[in-house]
Design brief:
two-stranded parallel sheet
């Protein structure tokens, strides 16, 4: 089970917004999981 779960709407949102914090948590030994809620593809015909 993960110690920390970071959730972002789009790919790279979490990394851009809190990448240094994630790196620090991982370096301290915490198990960090990043969840992207979309695949980042444009959706002109509705949601993916």
């Amino acid at each position: 089970m993960a110690d920390v779960v970071c959730i972002g709407a789009h790919p790279d949102d979490v990394e851009i917004g809190m990448g240094a914090t994630i790196a620090e948590m991982a370096a301290s030994g915490l198990d960090v999981v990043i969840v992207d809620l979309t695949d980042g593809e444009p959706t002109p015909y509705g949601t993916a």
